[in-house]
Amino acid sequence: MTKQEALHIYLLRMGDDSLILGQRLSQLCGHGPILEEDIALTNVALDLIGQATLFLEYSGELAEQPKTNDELAYLRLEKEYVNAILVEQPNGHFGDTILRQFLFDAYRKPLLEKLLDSNDERLAGIAEKSLKETKYHLRHSSEWVIRLGDGTEESHERIQNSLESLLRYAHELFFENEVDKLLIAEGIVPSAESIFPIWEKTLNDVLKEATLTLPKNNWKFQGGREGRHSEHMGYLLAEMQYMQRTYPNMEW
Amino acid sequence: MSESKGWPLWEVFVRSKQGLNHKHVGSLRASDATMAIKNARDVYTRRAEGISIWVVPSNNITASDPSEEDSLFEPSQTKVYRHPTFYDVPDGISHM
Amino acid sequence: MKDLNISKLEAIFQQKIDDDVKIEPNDWMPDAYRKSLIRQISQHAHSEVVGMLPEGNWITRAPNLRRKAVLLAKVQDEAGHGLYLYSAAETLGADREKTIDDLHSGKAKYSSIFNYPTLTWADMGAIGWLVDGAAIMNQVPLCRCSYGPYARAMIRVCKEESFHQRQGFEVINKLAEGTIEQKEMAQDALNRFWWPALMMFGPSDDDSSHTEQSMRWKIKRNTNDELRQMFVDVTVPQAESIGLKVPDPHLKWNEEKECYDFGPIDWDEFWQVVGGNGPCNKERVDARRKAKEDGKWVVEAAMAFANKRNAKKTA
Predict the structure, then answer these.
(1) Which residue, C228, C242, C231, is CA-closest to C170?
(2) Per residue in B74-93, pLDDT tens?
(3) What residues of B are in contact with residue C96 (Cβ under 8 Å)?
(4) Which of these CATH numbers, 3.10.20.520, 3.40.50.300, 2.40.160.40, 3.30.499.10, describes B2-61?
């Protein structure tokens, strides 16, 4: 594997995480629990679609046969998407949505912070822009986890359940294979090892303030980074790719 | 607040750029001040309209009574001597 | 205050309006003015919020990343506009949650256009171009309406909406210059949305119960028919310029009056849709009701949390 191939895949992961989570959040536009929060979640969706655009654009340029970001976003097979399974999980109730977001933001923020020092300038540039947005996302999602956790009995129970069902997908965010090893050696990306403790600390701090408890079952679920997704992914893609698949080769 | 479980109303003030006053832009609902600031950011500064936000619970604002408008504000209208244009300065005098 | 009787207050009030002095929340105003305004502003707010749904229907299927982002931003603006307007209504004492409950119970109305389904991507173009176009025609004069908070909300709304119509026209124009399938898609959207767009201006002046008084109060600045005519006159040439045909066999330029004559509007359909029998009335209101019901525990939790924290602070 060359450096270019590795970076192509790494950027694809970053892009797919953003794209798929952005797609999930955009399903909620118009259906938020209260208007103010509808607007806030849509802002997060917009930021993520923007980040996907940048990551996929760069990734596409590095592909063996260069592709546009739209080609990557809309015209791959399911197994070619390498987002973490966490981000394709359905929106569920607001607690599920917010907890999924929190688990992701708490990983994405330290990752982007470390990518600021990447030897790859363009990647560092995208990280810098994305970081400003992601800091805000993390504040937003962690404040909500705390509110729901330490809110009413009902909200506490609901978000505790969200945690029970979603945490097992979060560990995949720290997946590593030869792609990472090569890029870490080149000083282009940070190691999962360097991000995990930061993620874990954020998680523990927020859960504590939210009066939530870490699930006992620590099963780690993975597959998305290697193209093995959950059953939800096919439907998500069918919807997202609908226009491009139904009307191939047209400009919109 | 007319109902107990809903979120209180907040008035939002935005400073559009350094050197200008915060200006009232509207209101919104939020459960606490932190959320009110966030919501204000998302609702009222989507197009880079501000660099600083104040939020104040609407029920903490005391307003002057419009029916007393005459007694409150009219007296100052007749005190023209508070304005520089009231005074005659001979031609040729500058820096004044 | 006591020595002024109501008719004298009313005279002062009308004088202010005639002199183009804005009415502000705490000023004295006739009950009927307050009621009319609450009705008008909350209908307007509901229209923005319900209006998110037909377009929201296509965000997840937008054909490329740029279109997806633009549509998200646009629908988000509509939530913002709904919020500005609910805020304006609240200055008149109309509690937002109660106002929203009236929408959910079917008591309050919203623009009839949003009860039509969005069936193809071209509908995103048609809505931006025609529906936002019609809305802007309605809203620009309201920036000068007599009630301060409403006028200020409308100024904000109009400023933000200027991109909405353009993006819609861009969508439809792209289709009109595209493949045969795309052209057909664009024409089909125009066929379906043209008449409902004309109906958006409301019943003909002869049948509009509120117009006269609203004009005197300057909470309405043009009649329904005037605005409808303006809309037809600017939109027909736009359709022609991109090679689409307005679906009206009676449409003809009137040299003498220097405006278009257009065919009769199907007012039966209009009243049916207003009355709840449009293709999507139920879906729209159900979706809004569901959002509120699903969010109830969230709203309660946040309030309970705030109260706990406040108690800790003061303890």
Answers:
(1) C242
(2) 888 888 888 888 888 888 88
(3) 6, 29
(4) 3.10.20.520
